Amino acid sequence: MEKIVKSVQLISPESMKKHRRSYDCDICRKSFPQKSNLVMHKRIHTGEKPYHCDICGKSFSQRIHLAGHKRIHTGEKPYHCDICGKSFSHNSILIKHKRIHTGEKPYHCDICGKSFSQSIHLTKHRRIHTGEKPYHCDICDKPFSENTALTKHSRVHSGEKPYHCDICGKSFSQNSVLTRHKHIHTGEKSYHCDICSKSFSDNSDLTKHKRTHTGEKPYHCDICGESFSHNSILTTHKRIHTGEKPYHCDICGKSFSANSGLAKHRRIHTGEKPYHCDVCGKSFSRNSTVITRKRTHTGEKPYHCDVCGKSFSNNSHLTKHKLIHTGEKQYNCDICGKSYYQNSSLTKHKLIHTGEKPHHCDICGKSFSQNFDLTHHKYIHTGERPYHCDICGKTFSQNSSLMKHKRIHTGEKPYHCDICGKSFSQDGNLMKHKYIHTGEKRHHCDICGKSFSESGTLTRHKSIHTGEKGKR
């Protein structure tokens, strides 16, 4: 009996564990309990993919991966969520999905403590702390922390747009952009702001929107320290420092730092105006122009200066206005040294030196250095006067003319002489007035050489020579 007990002890589980054979990889020395596991593992080193899809020809290192892939073609989704009923092609996707319901986040960052529902999300997150960017573009060598970001970036160079809208046929470089685009057709806005009740078609848009309430700016430029509410704005901002302009117009070759800038520019060539004002029916090449246009009709001015309280219909106008208070003019002309509050103003100014007039009227052929001037010029041909005085009903072709006109009703005189304190409703009138103090007489009679401080006085003077009766 004692011998039997001893023999049993010899084949105990502990003993079996000690004597169990393991299979070792001769490349990396990793061990496996079964030979089949080692065979599959070795394919990582060899790159062998013996399982081929008979539909599209794609190859896989494991049979199970091929089986999962084939469901893309068949549409089969055999794994079902017992909570919401949603179906999935892979069990691993179902497991991840269930964490939405349970709130389980089993993967924790050992640096900041943040938790994640998926291991891959933790891996990506850790790169924020380490700064690791292991994926490089083989065209421009730009590094990325995620392979998906590299794939998206590569399409900037290739122009590939593999995602197509089955409703209108429009193509996109990213699936997420296609998803957002489709909401235009469905009108679906399932994400609601719990602060102002505004609705959004995409959760990421809601997240970005909420930052307007909280003021959160979690993205920081490591060069100048400026903070931003959106990562995409930070990416575009960094190109100011690097000078990178990765988006190129295939018609004229002009380059842009942002894809949105290229898209807007292309409409100059195509003449496309996809955005329509539902009040007056006018079409525009930019959505932002439609929004601003609508405020012309409604009188809405949602942007307020926190220094003087003045309101504006456009955020860019508020930004320009604020520079009056700060006095900051950071953009300098390298030809004449003149300074400007805004880069766009400097760009326009430089056209004086170059003589370039890139904006052409398609009716009479007249050219302009600024698109703004072309737009107003076209009103001569169309007779359009889109700016209306809400007090007397008078109409104007330019918003600036309407603003000047309104001062007749309000009595506002915002332009002050810094010498005598006299106020004026228009900037031009203040300039004329200042000539009284300076004695400057810029308007010269080409007949007798006499000089005058105002052009109107010169016109009246010339009638002496011509015999015409000048207006009084």
TrEMBL record:
Q: Which key words tag this protein in UniProt?
A: DNA-binding, Metal-binding, Nucleus, Repeat, Transcription, Transcription regulation, Zinc, Zinc-finger
| UniProt-listed PROSITE patterns | ZINC_FINGER_C2H2_1, ZINC_FINGER_C2H2_2
Keyword field contains Cell membrane: no
Q: Per the record, what is one GO cellular component?
A: nucleus
Q: Which GO terms describe its biological process?
A: regulation of transcription by RNA polymerase II
Q: Name one GO molecular function term.
A: DNA-binding transcription factor activity
Subcellular localization(s) per the UniProt record: Nucleus
Checking Pfam families in the record gives: zf-C2H2
Q: Where is the C2H2-type domain?
A: 23-50, 51-78, 79-106, 107-134, 135-162, 163-190, 191-218, 219-246, 247-274, 275-302, 303-330, 331-358, 359-386, 387-414, 415-442, 443-470
Gene3D superfamilies per the record?
A: Classic Zinc Finger
> Can you tell which superkingdom this protein's organism belongs to?
Eukaryota
Does the keyword section mention Nucleus?
yes
State what this protein does. May be involved in transcriptional regulation.
Q: Per the similarity annotation, which family is this?
A: Belongs to the krueppel C2H2-type zinc-finger protein family.
Q: What is the designated name of this protein?
A: C2H2-type domain-containing protein
Species annotation? Octopus bimaculoides
Q: What is the lineage of its organism?
A: Eukaryota, Metazoa, Spiralia, Lophotrochozoa, Mollusca
